[in-house]
Structures are given as structure tokens and as C-alpha cells.
Amino acid sequence: MCVSISQVSRFRIHSFGSSCCERIHGWIKNSSSLKLLDVRASSVDGKARWIRRNVSTTTQGSRGNTKSSVLGGTVPLTRIIDEESRTKVQPFGNLQQRLAQDKDLPKLLTVIVSDLETTGLHRKNERIIEIAAQDLAGGGYSTFQTLVNPGDVPITNTDIHGIRTDMVSRPEVPRMEELIPIFLRYVESRQKPGGYVMLVAHNGKSFDFRFLINEFNRCSYEIPHNWLLLDSLPLGREHMKSIDPTGKPKASLKVLQEHYSLTREGDAHRALSDVLLLSKVFQKLTIDLKLSLSDLVLRCHTASDIIAVMAKNKKA
Question: 269 an active-site residue?
Fold first, then answer.
């Protein structure tokens, strides 16, 4: 069907390591259908020029029954109906061990570095206001970035990331429930046939992944079971401790940037700038620690692992 774009989200995809303007196609959900956008995006300074046009696409069904091609098959974009299904975890076996032993692992695994910014630090009450991600394989449209409208939740930490309420409250900025299908489609577009995704974030286990899980749950989605979640902070600490075994290692992204004498594109604590920097840091850490893909897989968590820890901490 031919659709008219009446509202354009601030959704940007950049080619690997690039901050220049480029034409891209993205997806946005309006009512029960996903609409194809043609967007012209600029650099990490947050400014963008938008092009609206009619495009043709076909989608069927609502979010509750829409399916997308993942891992060479179909995985439902799951709509959680009640509390029982919200807390139910599908048994997947020891995914990390099985995958680490697969001789075809390089052909199966896609590594995506991610970062997000939030309205505050409380995972239950705060909201995500920016997401960025980058496929380390590079290529066209390998990087994703968007602001997110948090609704009525105020931003209390603008002094950290510089994101103001007026920047995210514009009608063209997608809300999280609109963004999740877009983000899933981006990840799907980077996956290898029959493969898995390793989502990397610095301090991800304590912060990014918990926020992401909470937001997916709030919007009645599940983190796909073929995603592995890797926190790069322990890798940084391990490397820094090998340099100074006597001290307590600091391994923030800024410390690692200075350690490796890396330059940053854009402002610190903006999602895309952090992702571009972490992509460089992560690759250097894996080299210095002599970590193979199998080693990294064994250090990963699943969403179910983190949900179990969150539930345990809640009871404590």
C-alpha cells in the first residue's frame, strides 16, 4: 500500500563511524501499521533536516501478532497480555555454552555496541530519552540513533547529558512504544542468517540492560531470546588491573578513552558519541585481553539472567 508520512520521527542511521548527512530508510509505527520513512540526518549535534515523501510498503497485523524475520526464521514481536506471561521465562538451555562451542560462531554472531540516556537514575520510575547502537561489522546504515519522548516523566539530569525536555517533547520524537519496533527492525537488519546478536554496553548489567528490559516490559514487549547482553565494564576493569595490580582499577569510558589516547566524536554522555567511542574501546580491550568470540559469549548474560537478578534484588 502507498502511505503518506504525516509525522516523522527523529530516527537516524549513520554509516559506520560517520557523522555526515545521508539518506536512509527507517520504520515507524502509526496505529496498527509500520510506515517507511525517508530521512536526511546530520551529525551528532542533534540537528537534522527531514524529507517527507510517499513510499510503498506492506505490513499486516497489529503489534500483538506482527512477526519479523530473525535468525533465519520468524520471531514474534511479543505482546505480553498478563502478569503471568510477563514473568514467565522461556527455557533456552545454556545458550552461552552451546553457542561458544559452535565452530561456525563467526558466521552466526553480530556484535552491536549500544548506549542510552535517561531522565534519571531510578530504573523503575525513569524513562529512556536517547538510544544509539553500532554494528561493529560496519557497512552501510550500521549505526542507529534517536531521541525518545518520555511522556510526562521530567528530565532531572540534563546537567549530565545535555538533553532538555523541549528537545524530546516535540511531536516528531517517538515514544518508547513506537520506537521498540523500529529498534527491533534495525537489529534484525544487521543479523546474520540463523545468527545471534551480542548487545554490548558499558556498565550494561547494572544500568543499560535493566532500563531496556523495564522499558520493553512496560511497553508489552520481550527482549528477543537470541540476544546476548555483554557488559564491557568488567573487561575494562580486568585490563586496568593487569596494568596496576595493587590499586582499585577505574574503568569508566572516560578513563579508557584517556588510557588508549582515543578521540571522541561529539559530547560525552550523548548516546551516539558514547557508542562511537565504546566501539573503539571495546575492540582494543578484546585485543589486549586476548579474548576470542567464544570467550566473549561465555561472559554474556541473557535477558532472563538479568531479570532473575532484578527480581532477587527486589525481594532483598
Answer: yes
